[in-house]
Amino acid sequence: RMVAAVLAGLSLLSLLTCGYLAWGSRRGGAGDAPGNLLGEEPAAGAPRSQPHIIFILADDQGFRDVGYHGSEIRTPTLDKLAAEGVKLENYYVQPMCTPSRSQLITGKYQIHTGLQHSIIRPTQPNCLPLDNVTLPQKLKEVGYSTHMVGKWHLGFYRRECMPTQRGFDSFFGSLLGSGDYYTHFKCDSPGICGYDLYENDNAAWDHDNGIYSTQMYTQKVQQILASHNPRKPIFLYIAYQAVHSPLQAPGRYFEHYRSINNINRRRYAAMLACLDEAINNVTLALRKYGYYENSIIIYSSDNGGQPMAGGSNWPLRGSKGTYWEGGIRAVGFVHSPLLKNKGSVCKELVHITDWFPTLITLAEGQIDEDIQLDGYDVWETISEGRRSPRVDILHNIDPIYTKAKNGSWAAGYGIWNTAIQSAIRVNHWKLLTGNPGYSDWVPPQAFSNAGPNRWHNERVSWSAGKTVWLFNITADPYERVDLSARHPEVVKQLLRRLSQFNKTAVPVRYPPKDPRSNPKLNGGVWGPWFKEDEKKKKSDKSKGANKQKKGKNKKKAN
């Protein structure tokens, strides 16, 4: 009770401020390279107003899985880039792949795109709705060259859904959420298998040389930077497949991790080591080809780590796919010579939707008044240490996921049906309803032989019928003390806020699978299968059939 009282008291304090660490002068290390590796500097007088934007999105990287968060996995490149930039230590994403990517590219919450539920499956006739303006489209309007390398996972059932149709000048990567790192094949279910590596709108069979995808994607990035004119602005979206399962890595990256007993953790460590080296090579290329001094590098994970697949979110609670902090609080930082407060730590509230308006503003673009964004421009918050314009985050409302059998309107004070999975953050307070997902804390010892006993001590015994939780995240970032019973008025306020958000939600898009999606019907390749012509033919046939029926009915009447 005393602990709960202390936590409640702390909620009155305003702690969400940017703290700064003096890292001193910039030192050499991983990621550094001479500025004149080509023997020349960018031409004098080159335009410098619009920065080059490099957004690097890692896949399934756990909150603890970076050196500066205390990981045993070495990440010298990430550590150095973050130390010389601004670490985002109150930064949130979504708990799964598609939701985070959709919010990054539109600046909108899932409830405003219809992608509230789960992810886009390979066999679903679904994609990011075509009426949503995307980040690369807005950047193209102001003269940016836009390129994507890596994982798309925003749908592809029709050609209009492909990356090259959503604002990217070029695309090299995969359309699905996962696949083999070497062969680029993916089976969605037994017998439903296909090839998933694309260059622009076609299967990239010519690039199928058995190269590990992290290295292959990095080579492509280097080629793009080498062929582009650094005096013209570029947006480069690098969505690495790593460190998502399947757990695969080249043998040499296992050298430093033989002592890790847990095989999944060992493989995961090797994958992350390879990713860290890849980002070093990207940074070297930015310097080599004259982009670095006018660049903004943003690094982010798309969701929390999956402990069963080697990831660690310790000391946060939960994992990927949940609305506990371990599923949604991410590794993130900004590195740029253009930052005013380099070497700082930002503890202001930042969400993945914020990159859309932030980057468009930096690029001197315009945000249309009719676009109802959920993101905020947070550049001054990050670069100068100002207060964030954001005071709340709707983590999600999923009306389809109602697995909390004991949820009810009564439990939600008649304001909200607590059977619905939802989560919201307002200032220091975080509210969860329904079934938030796997809720254990998984300590580092869980990955060793000594793990089980300690791990079992962190297991949560659910209170029968519980469907509402309230935490003061500022004072209790590890979600150990539920304050819902102590502060019913705060619970009601946040439930009302959920209800307000829900009034603006669009219908959920989650269609059943389409048998026409089978790669066997498409040359063995995952790719667009929905043809607009077929739809027209069907509608024409149905119209013709209706005319015949009407004619027969007239004869009968006569």
TrEMBL record:
Required co-factors: Ca(2+)
GO molecular function, one term: sulfuric ester hydrolase activity
Keywords (A to Z) from UniProt: Calcium, Glycoprotein, Hydrolase, Metal-binding, Signal
Skewed-composition ranges (Basic residues): 544-558
UniProt keyword Glycoprotein present: yes
The Sulfatase N-terminal domain, residue ranges: 51-363
Bias type Basic and acidic residues, positions: 530-543
Pfam families documented for this protein: Sulfatase
PANTHER family cross-referenced by the UniProt entry: ARYLSULFATASE, ARYLSULFATASE J
Protein name: ARSJ Arylsulfatase
Protein's UniProt keywords contain Hydrolase: yes
Ranges for region Disordered: 506-558
Domain of life of the native organism: Eukaryota
Family to which this protein belongs: Belongs to the sulfatase family.
Range of residues in the leader sequence: 1-24
Gene: Arsj
